[in-house]
UniProtKB/TrEMBL annotation:
Keywords assigned: Glycosyltransferase, Transferase
Protein name as catalogued: Putative C-mannosyltransferase DPY19L3 isoform X1
UniProt entry tagged with the keyword Transferase: yes
GO MF term list: glycosyltransferase activity
Organism for this UniProt entry: Labeo rohita
Length: 297
């Protein structure tokens, strides 16, 4: 078996450039108290992205001080090269030597490949793509949380970690998502609009997307949506607003500023409106049937 195929090898001296560094603070252990999962301790790791002009490597170290300085070139000897985690990892040991050397220009592709080891590219999709679970690579999605389970602990190779399942409404489809580890403990509620980056697809036992160590969960402002709906109920809301009930039993609030006047006898009625998270931004006039439903202001 060749040295390159072993999980660990001791290669020849190598000239490399540090392209970038990234410090991560992730949960190291968890505790469960009164059915609530909390982070018990954290681990800080700083990762250097390196390149020799052809191959890209990472060099992780515990703590906040990187092994290599961004933009510097080095010749390293007696280091350990690991292939164990599917990426080429450089580890320095007490016998390793790290010499600074003259800088050298990296090809654009080599520099990009090294940066991708720290921040991989992720495609922002609609969620309605036919190849959503088969396209490969990292995926980012925006949507509204339609279903949300409480976090629970599950066993993986390195112990027990939190997981939280949710359904994300993306346009006309609901996408099943599992948030793992730190992301499972982000404070979320039903109806929240969120963006999740760097998701990975899995097909078994059923298609879903999973968060990764690169993922971030961020709350977003809902985008305006134009819909044509049939309304079957009306009531007076707070502050002069009107609340309309659709035939799917969803409630839409029309602010008083729109001065909409619909009586029960006008129902059912079909309206085209633009809303943001069920708050109506505008209503499109529908000709004669709409005349008289706006009060003069």
């Amino acid at each position: 078996m060749s040295a390159a195929s072993l999980p660990y090898s001791r290669p020849a001296p190598t000239r490399i450039t540090c392209v970038d560094n990234r410090t991560n603070r992730r949960a190291k252990s968890y505790e469960v108290s009164k059915n609530e999962i909390k982070i018990a301790s954290y681990k800080t790791t700083t990762i250097s992205a390196l390149s020799d002009g052809v191959r890209a490597f990472i060099a992780p170290v515990d703590g906040e001080i990187a092994l290599f300085e961004t933009g510097r070139a080095y010749i390293i000897k007696n280091y350990t090269l690991s292939h164990k985690f599917g990426r080429e990892c450089i580890f320095l040991n007490p016998n390793s030597k790290k010499f600074q050397t003259a800088s050298f220009e990296l090809p654009e592709e080599a520099e990009r490949s090294a940066k991708y080891l720290l921040n991989p590219p992720t495609a922002l999709l609609s969620g309605e793509e036919q190849d959503l679970f088969t396209r490969g690579g990292f995926i980012s999605l925006k949507g509204e949380i339609e279903k949300l389970q409480v976090p629970r602990m599950t066993r993986v190779r390195d112990g027990e970690v939190p997981i939280r399942d949710l359904s994300l409404r993306c346009g006309q489809v609901a996408v099943e998502v599992s948030l793992w580890r730190d992301e499972a403990l982000v404070e979320l509620s039903l109806g929240d609009h969120i963006e999740i980056s760097c998701l990975r697809a899995s097909l078994k036992p059923s298609p879903k997307l999973n968060s990764s160590s690169y993922s971030a969960v961020e709350k977003t402002v809902a985008e305006p949506v134009e819909v044509e709906l049939t309304f079957i109920g009306v009531l007076e809301g707070d502050g002069g607003a009107t609340v309309l009930l659709s035939d799917a039993y969803e409630e839409y609030t029309v602010p008083a500023a729109l001065a909409l006047d619909i009586a029960a006898d006008d129902l059912p009625i079909k309206l085209t409106l633009t809303h943001r998270n069920k708050t109506v931004q505008s209503i499109e006039p529908l000709g004669e049937m709409f005349e008289g439903m706006f009060e003069e202001v």
